[in-house]
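README: folding subset

This subset contains proteins for which both the sequence and a predicted structure token string are available. Records are stored as plain text. Below is the entry for GPI ethanolamine phosphate transferase 2 (882 residues), shown exactly as it appears on disk.
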Amino acid sequence: MGTRWRTRNIMLAIANVLVPVAALIFATGFFPYKPFVPGLAAYHVLEYGEPPIPQFDKVIFMVVDALRSDFVYSHSSGFRFTQSLIRSGQALPFTAHATSPTITMPRVKAITTGSIPSFLDVILNFAESDTTSTLANQDTWLAQIKNKRDGNGKLVMYGDDTWLKLFPNTFERSDGTSSFFVSDFTEVDNNVTRHVPHELRADDWDALILHYLGLDHIGHKAGPLSPNMVPKQQEMDGIVHEIYEAMNTFSHLNSTLLVLCGDHGMNEGGNHGGSAPGETSPALVFISPKLKTISSGKESPTLARRDYDYYEKIEQSDIAPTLAGLLGFPVPLNNLGVFIQDFLSLWNDSTDQGQLLLRNALQILDIVKATLPNEQYNGLTSKADCDDDSSPGAELACMWQEIDRDLKTGGLAGPQNEVTLRLLFKFCRRAQDIMSSTASNYDLSRLMAGIVVAILSLILTGLAARNHSVLTNLDGAFFLLNILLYGIMMFASSYVEEEQHFWYWVMGGWLFYISVRKAQKELSVSPPFSFEGDSAPEFLILLALHRITQRWNQTGQKLAGAPDIVHSFWKQYPMLLWCFVALTYFQAMTRIGNHVSHYLKAGTLVGSACAVALCVPAFIFKLAFTASDAPELLVPLMGEGGVALFQGLPLVSTARMIFFLIASEIVWACASRFYIKTERIAKRDLITILHTLLTLFLLTQTRATNIPLFVIFQNQEFILTALALTPTQISVSTLLLGYTSFFAFGNSNAISSIDLSNAYNGVSGYNVLAVGVLLFASNWAGPIYWSEMEHLVVPTKVEQLHEDESPFFSHIALLTLFVTVSLVAVMVACTALRTHLFIWTVFSPKYLYTMAWSIGFHLLVTVGMGGALWLVCGGSENYGFS
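--- output ---
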């Protein structure tokens, strides 16, 4: 290789090293922890006397993970007993608004502190071993309860171990379970329930926290319409019944408040993390016989007023100050929640009612003053000045001045009380809205540093590709035009939410373009839109297959839940689904058998035995997995008895056996490479068998309903190989097919589309590395397939490249150019739009996905795995280069 190309490859290597550096620098400035006031709150000294007496002395806080509002309040709900309590007035129902990101850790932070968590918690939520997100030094209602009775308050927790990470050394007794082991619907909840009878009889605790995970796991595995959903709701309703009966039976529970709530909801796919109405609308029910004194009951079940809005809608952060008032402790220091007005009538004294809201308002005022210190809060501004349009800070200052004047003239008692209460509540709500929407404390220097490093990586990539042969033709021009359009698209929230349409249209345009180019080459004619020639049928087949992948899974926001192949067609024709699944595994088995027989020279019998030993257990595992995941897809195939039989198979050990067999065959194939003395055809066969084994692994990590997509991929692969495309066309094709397949699998730029269902295949407990690899493989199965496909379809004779160019490094140069452009575009968009309304719901998740594409996919899969395959298989010698 010449010196010039060696220098450019060095620049390309440096550019790829700078990609993760830029991404991480930018992330540390974009996702910082929000500042908080340390210590515990104390009661403000007021002239109106002591704080109001508490209405309850214990709380049972029951979280049912992903408890969407309709799961409790609708006519299809399994919470029949809870609904009876709502009708009788012994339960007050609400729909709590959970702000994005709708995942467990930030939601628990919001519930316990009353504050708005940082979006960084999205990352920390998946790092189960992380301890940096602890709330040990923050003020929460748990810390306040523990501080009661001269610091002798006792708390007990059973369920999601997120609570143990957030509150170390807080609980007197606890038993945590992993929230990510989503294959388990029953044991994860039974492990909580087995402690309930004992704790209900114990009288030594002040707060009992139960966090059930099974309903969330059912959602991740099979969606909200799973046949397992209503029975799980009935099970949770049974726990509510048991607790309620104990509250009426045991004297030490007579003054106990039961809170039933969800930390978040779920979308129509059963996932969460984004801002769809179903994800942001968990149920919230306060239960106690005492509540009958202030409620005559409400209709239940009932209909939603609009998307999942049942009864009154409150902010999830309102739970913290409400518990503070009901149980008699100061509102946590960092709280932005507002006491729920429905509970005010529990206190007969109007002064007590005023104190509750005033103390809540004073605590929020402290945050307002710390955030907006330059405003005037002491009543010197004239009322006329406050009527003018003003900044949010000035608006809050004027509102507080009005409250201050009202308190000085009328106090909290007498006829002025109702006016004062309205003013206090209005101030709290407005301050909540303004403080919640205040821009994060971005580190602009880090944001700019990350952008500069990313631009440097882009420049180095551009220099490496400068005058590169693959960029000096129409293929390269098409590629550059599309990455430019993609970069521009990152500045529009609607385009980011519906990114799949960009790739679907570009892929269709690319197929049209290469068909024209092939026709011109075959016929040697100048008309640019000629469809005559041998390539026309292949183009039409590719276009038809591409159209099918578009309709496989509806994704994005606007069409989420619309009819598609997975959710409509397969559910109507499950027998046809399993025919295609069986065909996919049969194709893999045939390929493996042929490669073992011919490439490894093991004979037909041994080849067939190896293929059967690999693919039959893999197919059985998929049947057993689906029997536990979505049994309704298997009942038409084998009946209830057959499904029950497969449900008894050990999934963990079966998956481990499959992974071991695949790894063994990979080692055998690679080792044999160094002992076979035949020419290039044997080395090329090694690429084929490795790709087939990788496909079998990806099938294991894919939902059954998506497995037939691999039949489409294999047909596209066959056609692309037959077309003998140029290196640039191969690179662009695999890039476009990788992105279209990502969205065809049902993924999107929302955190809620992350599929956890296959993250624990072969794993019996949480292991951050194993689960991380399996999670990535299951969500990026399509792109991984096409990334490694490049080595199969690359031609042995390449006319476009200079004699000292390597096709692999040319391929990497093109893909790195796309990665660096997209990274710079997303960084600049996030920086420029950091005060945008959708910064946390659209642009921040997009940046996380960009990091995953840049570091996880591009560096580890495309460069790492692809480079290893290129080296093991003989480097450029494989492709006709010496």
